[in-house]
Amino acid sequence: MVHCSSSFVYGFTRRFFGKLCSKTASIYGALESLSTVNGSTRKPIKYVLCTALSSCGKTRNWRLGIQIHAFMIRSGYEDNLFLCSALIDFYAKCFAILDAKKVFSGIRTHDQVSWTSLITGLSINGQGIGALLLFKEMLYTQIMPNCLTFVSVISACVGQSGGLQHCSALHTHIIKQGCDTNNFVVCSLIDCYANQGQIDDAVLLFAKTSEKDIVVYNSMISGYSKNMFNENALKLFVEMRGQNLGTTDHTLCTILNACSNLALLLQGRQVHSLVIKMGSERNVFLASALIDMYSKGGDIDDAQRVLDQTSEKNNVLWTSMIMGYAQCGRSSEALELFDCLLTKQELVPDHICFTAVLTACNHAGLLDKGVEYFNKMTTNYGMSPDIDHYACLIDLYARKGNLSKARDLMQKMPYDPNYVIWSSFLSSCKIYGNVKLGREAADQLIKMEPSNAAPYLTLAHVYARKNLWNEVAEVRRLMQQRGMRKPAGWSWVERNCVNYLGVVFQITCVLQC
What we know:
Elements: H1 6-20, H2 27-34, E1 36-37, E2 40-41, H3 46-59, H4 62-74, H5 81-93, H6 97-105, H7 112-124, H8 128-140, H9 147-157, H10 163-177, H11 183-195, H12 199-208, H13 214-226, H14 230-242, H15 249-262, H16 265-278, H17 284-296, H18 300-309, H19 315-327, H20 331-343, H21 351-364, H22 367-379, H23 387-399, H24 403-412, H25 419-432, H26 435-448, H27 454-465, H28 469-481, E3 492-495, E4 498-501, E5 505-508
Antiparallel strand pairs: 1-2, 3-4, 4-5
């Protein structure tokens, strides 16, 4: 009889099922073959089934996965904890969370792995509250979570009501369990704090981490970028490069985004050189970030060059180019590109693409075109416009002086107008001297941000245009009474690789490639 080592079986099975899951085939024969050694039929070892389920989960091959489940039952493995956990993971990755819950409920005695599998499954399926509740239930059973459990449940906190409180409570558990030195847990906490806007907590955690690897640096750089601390992101990137930790494509995307937000064309070009040096030019997301960086830096020709040099173009790249044209004031080219792509059927427009198109219409003041594209979203593509699309159309109406139509659209849309919508509407009221609607817009803005002086000042200009000096004086009096002051204006000036902010602050942003 031939005895095969576990590592051999594991390695062979991974390669075998990795290929099998990409094809349409019956898995029964394969399992029967793997379970036969020198003519002696045996039950397939659990590692074979587990690896097969893992491959099916990664490729989301539902058909083969459920055949494995059926084979498990036939082979008497339905009560095996190890395999049940793998099944939960498979169903969760195939977005069949109800089936994952059913497998979990059928387990007689749960262990750490089975609890963690379902918590992870709920988290990746967007059921954050369910993951948090299951975690609390796990604690009641006296089964202690491990680092993987914490990573999953922290991810579940993001975007949840009271997410910051949950994150802080989990942080306490993590310290008690001694998992605070695990870099994956640290990264999850940094991400969670950053997503909740608590960048100071994220920075403190980063500073306390003794063994910082590239993953920890990436998390902190992303956290800075998400919270618009772009200068800090750039400085940390330079520090990471100095530590010789290497660079990932994800890092470069984040840094390019920071360069875009600061309109740092020179530094963006240096990052582009690093992209080429790493051989990552074919990465679609990097190409998109480069197009965005060049567009915001005012170099639309280099943005077009990046697009031309990318062999495999998709919706992401085309949308970035359309938005780039719109941002650089070349709206006609943006709309020509969009219409050409639709004619050639090279583009399937999504919500983001239509935002770019409506932005182009807005910048060019093309009201009729904007209305046409807005209506096409629903009639031609069955999409419901989101608040960004409504914001573009409302601004178009308002800029054209049709303030009543803009106000009607604000009332009819299925969203509450946000600060940006009211602010742009108030600016149009100032231009066209509409006191009534201007006062309404200013009142809404003051309710949203009571400490912001901008709506007071714009309202005062609305009154001044109509020579309503008593009202102007009243606005000034209210500002003085409430301690309002106009914030100082500022701008970036770049000289000798140093960016000067106003006349007080200066930030050096030299990226060493």
